[in-house]
Amino acid sequence: DATKLVVTPKSPRVLKSHSILLKCQAEYDPHLKHSFKLSWRKDGDELPANSTEGGRIILDRDTLFISSVLLEDQGVYTCMASTALDAAEAEAQLIVLDVPDPPEDLQLSETQNRSVRLSWKAGASHNSPVNESIIEFEENRWEPGRWQELSRVAGNDTTALLSLAPYVNYQFRVVSVNAVGRSQPSKPSLRYATPPAAPDKNPENIRVEASEPNEMVMKWEPLKPVERNGPGLEYKVSWRQRGVESDWNEELVKKHSLSVRNVPTFVPYEIKVQAVNSLGSGPEPNVTIGYSGEDVPDAAPSGVSVEVVNSTLVKVFWLGISRDRVRGHLRGYKVNWWKTKSMLDGKRHHPEKHFLTFKGDRSYGMIPGLEPFSEFHLTVLAFNSRGDGPESSPVVFETPEGVPEQPRFLRILNFDKDSVTLSWGLPKKANGHLTGYVLQYQIINETHEVGALSEVSVANRSVQSWRLAELSPSTKYKFYIKACTAKGCGKAATEEGLTLAQGSKGSGRISDAVKPTPKFQPSEALEPGTEYTIRLVTKNWVDNNSIFEDVIETRGRAYAGIYEGISTQGWFIGLMCAIALLTLLLLTICFVRRNKGGKYSVKEKEDLHPDPEAQSIKDEIFGEYSDSDEKPLKGSLQSLNGDIKATGSADSLVDYGEGEHGMFNEDGSFIGAYSGSKEKGSVESTGSSTATFPLHA
């Protein structure tokens, strides 16, 4: 079979500094395998078999690899093969692409006051034709050494007529562009200086800025250096009050701002700025309208009125001030309001101002987030960039009653097999006169299914505990309590609990009447390991109501029972025996070593840890107290675990005013419930935690 060769790729085009791999694929008779030879040539010259040029060109039998391709690598590469009977060859044309060479021989011709023709010779394009030429200039009067683009010439043209500015000493250079990129810039041309002339344009972006009343600061963008057209550039500023003055006030300045004082506050002015140099003035400038310095408004909005939308939202209306009283650019209006008193207790409040901003020229606004059942004062003012104007006369309005907030807590005081006693706190904010409570309950289980919702209305607003009867034994219930006003009922506080099984019993004791002193200790001994409900009531207890209640659990046999149960386990007995044997073995070893002459120093210590004295508890209802300094009951809680923390108890009307901490009604019932942030020595029982233990009253 005849020998055949193919070189791939056939006509590669490679960017300078990139790499190329040529592969020679050969087919020859297998009987001639031992005589088969392969070699490479470039433009007819044989390439050595070993690497050349420091490893940049690598030959490996049928492959030729060139890294960091140079312009000199361009040419025809031939793969040659021979056997004992025949020979064959195949070639590939390598084309190297690069940016153009810089243009050369820049010439100036057709020189005029405002133009010149520039010509040049194009450099080598390196296999990618020039598609654009960029002409740059540099002048040595204003910004020497800084080259700026002046013009672009499409295609491969090598000449351009350039438009020039007066009073500039130019020199030029050219950059050629092809598909690969930009060439290096050419060498600069000879310099060409254009003669001076009057300005061709005036400053732009004319504006008025003022930081003080009765002042006007006029500013503008200065001309660029190449726009000056000649020496001695200045700006002629002209101004007059619009509609009042007929003659222009004029002043020549060299900087790009002018301040004028003793002008009326915020009045319109006509302003012109014209460029002027030693050879003349620029074109007639356009007139710009600007205003002198602002001052704060000197009038307040009138006709302020309030429309009550609901218990927390009102709509405010007002009549805006006239433009001449704004004395500036009107930015908007501010509505200020503050609470003066609560309609619930009539107590006056220290004014705490709030405000909302309404931008633009408008005459109404909505004020949300107000407290229900309260009296407010409200004012409106206008403001501009300078500041706020005077406030309007205060308008008094009242918000109606709203629904109460959620009661502070709902607790289970006592569970029996078919009944439960519940206690709850006052809402944090009543938002009106409380009319009573709505108590709801339903059966729940571990699934999403719930029973029918039953409801009990508690019409007496002073009642804060209730006994529900005719419940099912051993059943889990969820309870809800809502506080209500004439407006409606608020959000419910919840609690869950499990009634006792059939046959379970609970007991309770009522102590003798005690004097209203800060301390009290029951004379009866409490059973260890038992849960108790402590309830403090007036002597004439009515309507299921109590002043204070909490749940405690004494220590004792309940804890001992845990360890007693463990001690009967076989693994526990075995573990104790192993520890005893190990101790005996260690003592024997120590005794033997000591008898052999070992010296040991043994020091026995005994630390006494007497039980801490029970902390005294101060009755926080009949004694003086504050929310941040509450004491636990003394005596009755001596057996409590010191780590057990208390929760807040029932609320107090103190949160809604500055009145007394608590008062009795004519019938002797206590209408102010115990209030505090922490009660030490009691078991926490708030939120929606499940009470799964029997509580006895």
From TrEMBL:
A single GO BP annotation from the record?
A: cell-cell adhesion
**Gene3D superfamilies associated with the record:** Immunoglobulins
Show the GO cellular component annotation of the record. Answer: membrane
**Which InterPro entries does the UniProt entry name for this protein?**
FN3_dom, FN3_sf, Ig-like_dom, Ig-like_dom_sf, Ig-like_fold, Ig_sub, Ig_sub2, Neurofascin/L1/NrCAM_C
TM stretches of this protein: 571-592
Membrane topology per record: Single-pass membrane protein
Range of residues in the leader sequence = none
Ig-like domain span: 3-95
The listed locations are: Membrane
Point to the regions of Polar residues compositional bias. Answer: 683-697
Checking Pfam families in the record gives: Bravo_FIGEY, fn3, Ig_3
What superkingdom does the record give? Eukaryota
Keywords (alphabetical) are:
Cell adhesion, Disulfide bond, Immunoglobulin domain, Membrane, Repeat, Transmembrane, Transmembrane helix
Annotated region described as Disordered, given as residue ranges: 182-203, 677-697
Query: What residue stretches are annotated with the Fibronectin type-III domain?
Result: 102-197, 202-295, 300-402, 406-503
Family classification: Belongs to the immunoglobulin superfamily. L1/neurofascin/NgCAM family.
User: Know the name of this protein?
Assistant: NCHL1 protein
State the species of origin: Cettia cetti
